[in-house]
Amino acid sequence: MAIQAVNQALAVSGQDASHVPFVNSSGVIANDPTNFSYSPSTQALTVKNLTIPSGGALTIASGGNSTLYQKMPVLPSSGNTTLSAAMSGATMLFDAAAGITFTLPAPAVGLWFDFVVTVSCTSAGHKVITNTGTVLLAGLIAGGLNNTANKQWVADGSTHVSANMTAAASNAAGGIIGSYLRFVCATTTLWIVTGTVVQGGTPVTPFATS
User: Fold this and answer.
1) Which of 120, 123, 115 is nearest to 77 (CA)?
2) Which of 40, 144, 161, 199 could be 203's S-S partner, Cβ–Cβ 3.0 to 4.6 Å?
3) Which of 30, 59, 88 is the last residue of a domain?
4) pLDDT tens per residue, range 96-131
5) Is 161 found in the same domain as 124?
6) Measuring CA to CA, which residue among 121, 108, 106, 104 is closest to residue 178?
7) How far apart are CA 34 and CA 26, in angstroms?
8) What contacts 41, CB < 8 A, 6 or more positions away?
9) What is the Cα gyration radius of the chain?
10) Residue 10, SS3 per DSSP
11) Residue 86: phi, psi to the nearest 5?
12) 32 to each of 46, 50, 59, 69, how far by Cα in Å?
């Protein structure tokens, strides 16, 4: 039975009551498009605005199943930008040929950001820098030039504060479309960097001390 299937598949405790599907006395699941909808033909329950506060739980009962989808925000640039902690998890776009600088927020363990080059820089550079000189970068990124001169670049965790993909020397430090970096805050003074940079000319490290 459809209602039994839903009840077996979804057991929710501790969340705001306004977000819970309601089964009335006739065994009919109400449809509230703001929060949820149910399809009797497919026995699929779609929850749009489920809030589980601290201490609550979402449990899939034995025999049940769920499919969860999540989209990460992809944010075009608006010129040089200082990121905020609230933007954690976003993919930031280097989307201007003149180059863009993103400044990371003050460290808080668990923050993370992705950076993707969608427009190669032709002047200045595409750069990610920490909020202060005492917050450092560590990690390793791969760099390559069309399957030749492939390199690996290491941030030393003691002097490096930026990944600076400048346009100089035919984009030797990267900044070409397709480059990708991830920054994860590991401590209150350290970001871990991984990714791949597409480089030109004679590749050099994008990691810098300023």
Assistant:
1) 115
2) 199
3) 59
4) 999 999 999 999 999 999 999 999 999 999 999 999
5) yes
6) 121
7) 22
8) none
9) 23
10) coil
11) -65, -15
12) 10, 13, 22, 20
Per-residue tokens: 45: 């329950």
Distance of CA 154 to the CA centre of its chain: 22
Tell me, yes or no, whether 195 lies in a domain.
Answer: yes
Joined tokens for residue 91: 């993919």
Q: What angle do CA 131, 132, 136 make, to 5 degrees?
A: 95
Do 115 and 152 fall within a single domain? yes
125-129: strand order across its sheet: 81-82, 101-103, 125-129, 162-166, 207-208
- pTM recorded for the entire structure: 0.72
User: Could you tell me the two tokens for 194?
Assistant: 């991984």
Total structural domains in the chain?
A: 2
Look at residue 15 and tell me whether its pLDDT is greater than 50. Answer: no
**In angstroms, what CA-CA distances link 13 with 16, 28, 37, 203?**
9, 21, 19, 55
